[in-house]
Amino acid sequence: MRAAQPRSRQQTLSQRRRLIGSSCKLFFSNDPVKIVKAKGQYMYDEDGRQYLDCINNVAHVGHCHPDIVKAAHEQNQLLNTNSRYLHDNLVDYAERLSKTLPEKLCIFYFLNSGSEANDLALRLARQYTKHEDVIVLDHAYHGHLTSLIDISPYKFRNLEGQKEWVHVAPVPDTYRGLYREDHKDSVTAYADEVKNIIERAHKRDRKIAAFFVESLPSVGGQIIPPAGYFQKVAQHVHKAGGVFIADEIQVGFGRVGKHFWAFQLQGEDFIPDIVTMGKPIGNGHPLACVATTKEIAEAFAATGVEYFNTFGGNPVSCAIGLAVLDVIEKEHLQAHATEVGNFLMKLLKEQQIKHPIIGDVRGCGLFIGVDLIKDQAERTPAPAEAEYLITRYMGQSWSSSVWEARTQLQTTIQQSGQKRKQSVGKGTV
Ligand SMILES: Cc1ncc(COP(=O)(O)O)c(C=O)c1O
């Protein structure tokens, strides 16, 4: 192995500042940690200090999971190449993914990043519908490509602004949004916002290609849309000739615990037309996927223009993707997400009783949000306080109750893991 020359955190930081574009931000940028290794749920810095990794949305089955490392190593020793050669791994992987999805989503494209997947989803939608416009939720982020900055209010509001083909719908947030938990029918009210957008677009002779949404808006504030919202929106969008695209890049692969896909939280009767996947799919390996229907794939192929992606779906990527699915199943990780997530929510709710700054604790499995507020009446967000909280780390002086909660959480993660190991082979959790 080519070992890096040992150097201090400060040396690495100055080298990075000299060589890497300053818009590429580090976590905890005022005082970044230098992580040199990781195992399971823990990361370690150059001084051997251990961190419980609660923010990583990629190392889905645990850092350096031996089964993933082994799958990559074994396939690397055999073959890794351009994805235009016929290979079993690609078709086996597509087959396995298809078993996790509704039958209708039966055609797959493999790519290297979430952004690539969302860009392709946009192309598929436009080709199929022959329309151009896209409806997105406010505050959304869908990727770093030019096409996706255009549909990410989180980004375009700080850049050139909103394009004429982009329409922004309010986030279906029943805590702080337009229609709250006391509204008699927030599902219809939020879906009607989308219907109104479509009507206004039609009056301007614009045509809707897609409603593009994260199944659980993450960047938009860890929001859980009320069940039934997607069905109603899909009706309006389909009526306008558009398709429903579910971005599962952050929230797919069992993170929500009770379902494999977060869109399934909406109810069994809801099926998107296109699903995009990334981040956890390869446990850190650059891999992504778009799943869609036969009709949409056929419309895309009808142009006669080849879709070609050099690395997407190469034998190593697919071996890793298959290994990730095996581990999720073998180690009952959906049950683990439910167990640990419920426990973490319980701890956070205990803190909420003690601290009025915690306005809301919401979540599902290991998708959890803590909403800090300045006042109970208006629920005004407290961004400075949130920033302060998320940039504090273990070395700083936390109160004893926070330490106690952290220790309890670590114990639950470990116990849940042990229980799962004991149950492997018995088919129980
Ligand atoms: C919801 C969502 N979609 C798309 C992307 C883009 O994925 P990538 O960074 O792999 O291109 C991200 C990345 O943060 C994301 O959170």
TrEMBL record:
<dbReference type="InterPro" id="IPR015421">
    <property type="entry name" value="PyrdxlP-dep_Trfase_major"/>
</dbReference>
<dbReference type="Pfam" id="PF00202">
    <property type="entry name" value="Aminotran_3"/>
</dbReference>
<protein>
    <submittedName>
        <fullName>5-phosphohydroxy-L-lysine phospho-lyase-like isoform X2</fullName>
    </submittedName>
</protein>
<keyword id="KW-0663">Pyridoxal phosphate</keyword>
<dbReference type="InterPro" id="IPR005814">
    <property type="entry name" value="Aminotrans_3"/>
</dbReference>
<dbReference type="InterPro" id="IPR015424">
    <property type="entry name" value="PyrdxlP-dep_Trfase"/>
</dbReference>
<keyword id="KW-0456">Lyase</keyword>
<dbReference type="GO" id="GO:0005739">
    <property type="term" value="C:mitochondrion"/>
</dbReference>
<dbReference type="InterPro" id="IPR049704">
    <property type="entry name" value="Aminotrans_3_PPA_site"/>
</dbReference>
<dbReference type="InterPro" id="IPR015422">
    <property type="entry name" value="PyrdxlP-dep_Trfase_small"/>
</dbReference>
<dbReference type="GO" id="GO:0030170">
    <property type="term" value="F:pyridoxal phosphate binding"/>
</dbReference>
<comment type="similarity">
    <text>Belongs to the class-III pyridoxal-phosphate-dependent aminotransferase family.</text>
</comment>
<dbReference type="GO" id="GO:0016829">
    <property type="term" value="F:lyase activity"/>
</dbReference>
<dbReference type="GO" id="GO:0008483">
    <property type="term" value="F:transaminase activity"/>
</dbReference>
